[in-house]
Fold this protein.
Amino acid sequence: MTNKKIIHRPISAEIEELAREHGNDPETALELLKEIQSRHSALTTDSVTDAARALKLPPSKLYGMATFYSMLSLEERKRVLRVCDGPVCWLKRASKDSGQLSVSSNQLSVNSGQSPVSSPQLVNEWKDKFSGEFSVERTSCLGLCDRAPAVLVEDEQAGPVEANEANKVCEGWRGVPTDYSEIRKGEVRVMTALIGKIDPDSIEDATANGVYDGLKKALLSEPTVVLAEVESSGLQGRGGAGFPVGRKWRFVASEKRTPRYIICNADESEPLIFKDRVLMDTNPHQLVEGMTIAGYACGASEAWVYIRGEYEFQARRLERAIEQAESKNLLGENILGTDFSFGIHIHRGAGAYICGEETALIESLEGKRGEPRLRPPYPPTFGFRGQPTAVNNVESFCAVPHIINHGAEWWRNLTSDPTPGTKVYMALGHVKNPGLFEAPFGLTLREIIEDFGGGMLPGSHFNFALCGGAAGTIVDESLLDTPIDFASSQKGISLGAGSFLICDQTVSPVAFLRELLHFFAAESCGKCTPCRVGTWRSLEILNRMVSGNAQMGGVDELKALADLMQDSSFCGLGQSVAIPMKSALTHFGAEFGKVEGLKV
Amino acid sequence: MVNLKINGKAISSEAGKTVLQVAKEHKVHIPTLCYHKDLNPTGNCRMCIVEVKGWRALPAACVTPIWEGMEIETSSEKVMKDRKLTLELMLANHPVDCMTCDAAGECELQDLAYEYKAQIPAWGAKGTRYPVDSDPNPFIRVDMNKCILCRRCESACAEIQGRNVWGVAKRGFEEVIVAGAGVPLLEARCESCGQCVAYCPTGALSNKMNYGMARAHQVTDPSRALRRVTTTCSYCGVGCQFDLLVKNNKVIGVSSNPNAPVNGMALCVKGRYGYDYIHHPDRVLKPRVRRYLLEGKSKREIREQRLVASSLVASSLIANPPVSNSWDWVETDWDTALDIVAKKLGDIRKDFGADSMGFLTSAKCTNEENYLMNKLARQVIGTNNIDHCARL
């Protein structure tokens, strides 16, 4: 028997005070932890325990959070520099030395005993440059794919920058956001129409250019009319799954229970995708307007924007926009003299891709680990705080004011494709003119490369493309002419969130798939077995393949793991990891086979 | 009522039930690991996946509600293949030490691996990730290498005991079960009730006191002088039942009995781990009385003798006064002891009246014992002065 006594330790006065400032509300656990960390440069066992006691939560739950979110740390840190370790930044970095793009470059130490998730080399390269000024950390993706290779200097987004230019960063250089004010040939701009035309921090500019006209128009009619208009527009969700927005809102509006909630999913954490950042950056009022219309249509009075922690700049911009809208009575109590009152809050994430999954997002918003919930029940019936909740993507909300303003008919007539409206696309990789553009649905990959992307880079020819996002399809040239929309994934080419990474002959699909799995293994939440171990094992196999140490049977095992993850994973994350794996193995089976044969 | 088909067989069942519940009612076997009937299902382990016609993914039976027209296959080729591979993913990082593991025989992972003929992969950590026996708790042995992250311990601690000691930390492959903010169990408000041990499907959590003494399947083997005796806990009046694990007529441990009517699997630290008194050398097994009672002397006489002796010591007149040993406890038989008690009670009642006595009973007694005490007080002695410690 032990005679060890557990001595009562009072909660630190500072943490108690901080918790009181947050109303001792368990939902604010994440903010509280972040604040404690920013004051003391790290969380400790004691501070996590104290925070939990102050919020009347079990310490195990808060510790679970502190170790779940990548921006929280129990290790002492100085100013933190986060180096993007995502596939787009990898491609940009490695393109300088094409040896790294191929297999058997031996850049990976397979048997070092290190977790295959860590990228010590990248972090060390940066660390060497800073001798103590910054703590360098890897991060899965910063959402700065158009500024790759990117870093996050504390809250400040910076790029493109390489490790050997680190002194630039020290001196305060951050680079500038990519300018998208120039309209490409063939573009149809609706949501991006005001890029570069307004000062995003000025509501006067916004209203002078028609922002909030949709809201004003919506408030003149009954909520049911607004809902019917969105429904008949056929607007499909822009997060990647393409679920009809109107139908989702109908579910929420037809629930008898109140309060109902609107949540904007701005946790844009998937490699290749940065459209929501650009939309929020260039026209934040459009999002505020769209969310307010959604609130009106669904009978909700409160909304949250769940924005990823790395988008601090954008979060502040949105906060300013909300403040301005409130001051003009476009938000808040009795909007424009009507009975309708609506408030929007900004909630910052803390670094977890899985929080883009809507139920994980809700969990995170409630101050828990961002793990997906069981479904059913779905958020429209049982969402935030168990109430009816509509969760939509930034782009989906941004489309709404235009639909209300110009009518569902107009929206449908924007395109001849069966999918109505326009889409914000992103083209990346080895094209002359990468970046963001808006166009109707039904583009082909060839059009994206040739017409919008300006063609392949000199000396490059098309090898493969990753379509949709990190969890999209890897396609070869056989699918260059297939029109892409939400339904085209049946044909093997997905639209996802609308991003396309074009890779030329220098990039090995095997090495590239490794990068994707590197991302997924780092971001799997760990809840279910197939995804937790499946991503890890797939990465291990690919690590071996890339470094020339492949073992026989690896390709078959990858196939089996992809099948398992797709069929049996708990949530969309695990299920969609299989999409790039399977498509790469289908189109580039020969490449994988060759790698396997390297060492037999 | 909802009409559905399981493996082609038409079934109608109440709405609101899960696929697993309906399958169980109709004797269709679906393997489970993270599921336990006492705990809220979580759908973590993905062992109970089934194929539902028209669905691309395979839903987990434990959390999927039934609906009208649902057609379920519980052991299609796809399902069996995925279950086997999921098991292999668990086994890759699980130590292959079943031959020395305390949980062998009652390990659900072991049973499933056998049932599915799982091949233990050559890759994986194989139990080298965490220190073995990593927690200083005197009752609970922790070996996180054997953990398959089913989270039953977390649920049991939260839902049954309400302590929330266990939690899940980190994410992805690094995910691990921790107590409190990554501290030893006792510092994380653990009551050492052992509920987590009872619900752990593997050897990750086991009982420290009888670790290595006998395995579950051996405890019903008379040829090894081992048996399992269902009994009621003697610590309090709740009446929890459990099984004593008996080896060579010695109690070596306690095991939850899922059929216990009052408590199910739940026990407190005393019931589960407080059995060491049974064979303790200091334990009083026979009644004892003071020697003077056997000698027929009165208490006053003895007390005066003792007072004189101690005053002599106090005034330093003598160092070691001759004290009679009449005050000592003497072992005797029940009849003698009870006779003495009966006589004394009778005397008091005669001299001072029935209400000069009061009876205080114990929460450690059963309802029946307390009832008999009440009979004794009111009908035999004739007083209403009776109370119970739990009424305070």
In short: Chain B touches chain A through 51 residues (CB under 8 Å). Chain B has a mean pLDDT of 92. The first helix of chain B runs from residue 19 to 25.
